[in-house]
User: What shape does this take?
Amino acid sequence: MAEKITMPRLSDTMTEGTVATWLKKVGDTIKTGEILAEIETDKATMEFESFYDGVLLHIGIQEGESAPVDSLLAIVGKAGEDISALLSGDAPKVEETPVAEVKADAPVTAPAKTEIPAGVKVVTMPRLSDTMTTGTVATWLKKVGDTVKEGDILAEIETDKATMEFESFNAGTLLYIGVEEGGTAPVDTILAILGPAGTDVSGIAANYTVGGNVEAPKVEEVKAEAQTEVTSSTPIAASNPNERIFASPLAKKIASEKGINLAQVKGSGENGRITKSDVENFIPSTVSAPVQTVAETSVEAAAPAKVFVPNGEKFTEEIKNSQMRKIIAKRLAESLFTAPHYNLVIEVAMDEAMKSRAVINTVPDTKVSFNDMVIKASAMALKKHPKINSQWREDAILINHHVNIGVAVAVEDGLVVPVLNFTDQMSLSQIGAGVRDLAGRAKSKKLLPTEMEGSTFTISNLGMFGITEFNSIINQPNSAILSVGAIVEKPVVKDGQIVVGNTMMLSLACDHRTIDGATGAQFLQTLKQFIENPVTMLA
Assistant: This one.
């Protein structure tokens, strides 16, 4: 009797798996203990062995495809055995016998499935972050007909965390584009098809589906490229309708806002790509003089003594939400409306911290910021007050005894939170170097998804923008977030005398489910002591 094999759960946190390699093909004889496939989990790529003897009759998940745990992976049984009952309601029938695949209204000689020619590779929407479910193509850097080398950047893809470059792992000609610029599609749907030039991939695009729930788009031919470019979300007028204009998503956005024709802008980036600075520094060759409307003329002639009323035009701009903006909205709303927030504020004297920082930065190749000092002090305070370093679960409160501090970094499309792992074990200079590295790569879109995971506490600093005090929304699943304001010089009372001092406001947003007010207040008192006496952080 045929046996169904489902996607196994190979780790405690695995919810889906990706078939990296099939070591058996349909028709092969299999013995118990033989390796069927290599499966990528959320932690590693592992070998998956068969627990049955028989013949491999069906493969339900092709190489490179992902599917949830318990999805149909394969069917093993006797040679020639009818498996139609087992396939009922499952994923698209791949690698079945011709009899099972032929539709009732189709010619008997025409098989339902489309074979993928040798050398052709289907590229699917990648999962570029641990929480990514859909991706948006911000920019295609290649067009249909272009030659693609292994390692070339195919496109820029917006995830729920950042806009990231997606490179090709295969060489060939770009034969088909499945998701146009600005288009959004679920992970693992067809993104593109690569292969030898001139290969007909219309059958693949029409019949190839992933997971059985995505209908493949129609084949895009080279001659249709001009029309595709004209209908892009950014108005571009090129002298040659077939000419491709390369521009970053931000450059396109700024050009659209300013009404700049990108065809007139000279790009300074790689291969002439137009960047943000190119658009901002662009000076049009001619400037049209303002035209006085008939309405303006008649108003001035008829009633010159009346109060002047500007004759303007109402203008509203609609900007499509990026994937990052959608996820930020979703998660912050969930955090604010599910976690009962409250805020505690404390004022910290910064005079000693300023003196200590000046001395520390006299050491060659050392650069420590006030934010680095706050991070170090927070890490040490969290070790003394571990309840702040916690997470809420319906059945228990999870106390983290390791300290991983997330540092909020503003990027052009939104906000990301790279994580300093084991922050309490780092020196001030190591924290400074780590933050500069993570922030720099975040702004240049080079941050890895794994570098934005696992935070136990978050710090957001707007002091450099002159903001003296603010409250943040907790970055779930953390229980607290610290908001850091600017250092302000003002009169303070010291030893009964009014003197000039420097102070900074700290605001701690807490989840009342895990942190009581007294606990949060004690944490802030400890944090204040560390910052006001920096030498204690070196003990």
Remarks:
- Confidence is low (pLDDT under 50) at residues 90-112, 211-239, 287-301.
- Residues 323-338 form the longest helix (16 residues).
